[in-house]
Amino acid sequence: MKKNDEFPFAHARRITPLEVIAAEQAIQEQFGINYTRRGRPVKSETEKYQSVSIRLHPQVITWAKSEAEKQGVGYQTIINEALLKLVS
Hints:
The protein has 3 helices and no strands. It is mainly alpha-helical. Helix 2 (58-71) packs across helix 3 (75-87). The N and C termini lie far apart (74 Å). The model has no long low-confidence stretch (mean pLDDT 89).
């Protein structure tokens, strides 16, 4: 008899989000383990950022990157904060 070492993933069905929630609840009830969602929290529609493509002068990018390094954040965050100060 031939031994099949690999699981046939191509024929396996995917579990639904409801099944995932049910499994998490069962584990929590049985073992007392509380699952926390990983990743960033969901933002409301007014807080979501919009992706854009924009050309900036090299001096602006250099300034933003140096400020970002000083503050330990990303350079896009620096540019966003500077623009928010102008519009607020």
